[in-house]
Amino acid sequence: MTLAQLIFLAAAAVTLVAAIMVVTAPRLIHAGLWLILSLAGIAVLFILLDNGFLAVVQVAIYIDAIAILIIIAVMLTRAVMSDADRQINRMGLAAAFASLILLAGLLAMVLQVPAASPAPLVEAEVNLDALGRALVDVDGFILPFEVASVLLVAALVGAILVAMAPARGD
Amino acid sequence: MAALPIALNVIIGPRKPNKTKSETYECGIETVGEAWVQLKGQYYIFALIFLIFDIEAVFMFPWAVAYDRLQFYMVLEGVLFILILAGGLVYAWRKGALEWV
Amino acid sequence: MSDPFVIVGQFIKELLIGLGLEAALTAVLLRIVGAAVLGGLVGAAAILTIWAERKLLARIQDRIGPNRVGPYGLLQSFADVLKLITKEFLIPRGADRYVFIMAPLVVVAGVIGMWAVMPLAPGLVGTEINVGVLYVIAIGAIGTLGIMMAGLSSNNKYALLGAFRTVAQMLSYTVPMLLTLLIPVMLAGSMGMLTIVEAQSSAWFILLAPLAAIIFFISSLAELGRTPFDLQEAESEIVAGFHIEYSGMGFGMFMMAEFVHAFTISALFSVIFLGGWQGPGVEAFPLLGLFYFILKTALIYFVVIWLRGTFPRLRIDQMNAFNWKFITPLALVVFMVTAILDKLAVQADFNRTAVHLGSNAIIVLGTLFILRAHAASQRRRKEVADRPQIQHSEAAGD
Fold first, then answer.
1. CB C41: neighbour CB atoms within 10 A?
2. Which residues of chain B have a CB within 8 Å of the CB of A156?
3. Which of A130, B43, C171, C212 shows the greatest Cβ crowding within 10 Å of its Cβ?
């Protein structure tokens, strides 16, 4: 039981427990906060994979932007100070069955990969320089890079259209 | 490493001896009605625009790290990325999505 | 005397290994101790900075400030902390207990966590990661999350509104911060704080990117919630904002977090734009770097306090308009111009500093020109709108 394994188990446990609490918490705001804890657990997992950049990106985008966005959306849509209904409805059993099938499929895929030695994936830190160059290299990811910006603007335009439309409607 | 200050604070922080258990203390101002408010949709728009620019900045950071070793057309590609997003900001501006909170 | 901290660290490590712990565990323990010491030092620095701020603000306002407790009022902060500790930590009825208690801890953790990557002197840094700049932004925004938790759990609609407005303001002003932080990363070729400091050995980045530094400073001020952007906690106007329901040490935590955050932003500015520990003679005496770092941070903090005592507040709609319609487009323009010109200057072998200073001056002139044209057009529009009323009153006057 090396230290890395201990940290991995702890982080994975936190992530899973928080994820379960997200879907079972009676109050939506609590669900949002559990989501933040789950995302933080994933950030720790990224660090364990020797990828500090993605861990920081995870915190910066998911926790700092998306989680806050979700909480604001929750606040916008209902009176959340009162307790909500039961979180598990009649279809709970069918949903559990579907997730078990999904789990079986994932396990089948994962078990096909030969067991690797527990060595770190890359020996050095993430080469940000290479990543930056690959993003704009003509033989690299330049097209997805620019399309990503167009996609972001499309999301912005769409959200503004949806949010501002009622204001103009009356 | 940053989780340690939390532990530090648990030690430093709540070292307050609770004197009387004043349970039904109506703290703050007298509340009129329930304690929830209907937020304006403007908060969502601001958070959304922040999200868009946050993702854009995260894309630009590796580009900026590799900046010294990039050729000029690669710099222009990065600038194009930002220009597209600036266009999005201009759209939001013209649509009045940036008006006050 | 080259590096006393390393020597102390080695000594403790030998001690622990001698006691029978394995090497990896001692390394982790040492890091934990180091982090705790850093957090403690930052908290202690807060005491001093609070005193300095109150004294300085008082002098700006033509009064003396704390001078009763201890010589020159130096022990005033200690007295305040003692008072806060002995006050009851009230949890309002109907409040969300655990979230309420955790919120100040999250805010303070977010602020102190920023110091983990701050390069204090050559070789003296909490932990050197190659994504230091983005880490600082990410951890800073965790403080924002804590504020939201505080507002949500307080069972108080004013706290809720105040918290969301604060969060909206902080999120808005993070955008120009991110954009202007890209420029030092470009110039240094790395996101690591240590590398950024080392890259300023020839020229501080404030010379290479003065406009970016100013924009970063302004947006940091706004993100801190400092005057002139401190509508959220306007001590003389609204009640208190998101920390209405907090008393005792919870309130103390929020206040401490705010002052430490201001100090941290000053330190960040001095690291990124003023060269951190760079200065004459640092190669010979690394500890001199610590002195330079503290000096520069204190200078920037002085400017922050100075601004607080001088400027009136902006209204919230003015704040938002200022950000989205002025600062963010300006940051975008500065970034694009700097990116293009720097590459061209390096390829054509011009003097980078001259090119950047010149381009920034041109941008400033262009901005002033646009602002003047905008103000003139607004004035004209106002005159046109006022004119029919004048005729109307003339007709009704006699």
1. 13
2. 48-49, 52, 88, 91-92
3. C212
Residue at B100 is within a domain: yes
The structural domain count of chain C equals 2
Task: Please judge whether C165 and B23 are an interchain contact, meaning their C-beta atoms are less than 8 angstroms apart.
Answer: no
Binding-face residues of C in 175-194 toward A, CB within 8 A: 189-191
- Closest residue, chain C, to B69 (C-alpha): C189
Strand spans (E) along chain C: 119-121, 124-125
Question: Among C137, C152, C175, C185, which would you mutate to test the A interface (most chain A Cβ atoms within 10 Å of its Cβ)?
Answer: C152
pLDDT in tens, C199-245: 888 888 888 889 999 999 999 998 887 777 776 666 555 566 777 77
CB atoms C156 and B31 under 8 Å: yes
Domain that holds residue B62: 40-101
For residue B12, being part of any structural domain is answered with no
Here the tokens at position A21 are 């609490």
- For residues C1 and C138, state if they share a domain: no
Instruction: Write the CA distances from A140 to A122, A125, C130, integer angstroms.
Output: 21, 21, 23
Residue B53 belongs to some domain of the structure: yes
Residue B10 lies in a domain: no
Q: Do C130 and A126 touch (CB under 8 A)?
A: yes
**Structure tokens belonging to residue B28:** 């703050």
Q: Residues 182..201 of C with a Cβ closer than 8 Å to B: which? A: 182-183, 185-187, 189-191
CB of C204 closer than 8 Å to CB of C273? yes
CA B83 to chain centre: 22
**pTM for the complete prediction?**
0.87
Helix (H) or strand (E) holding C117: none
Query: What's at A103, amino acid-wise?
Result: L
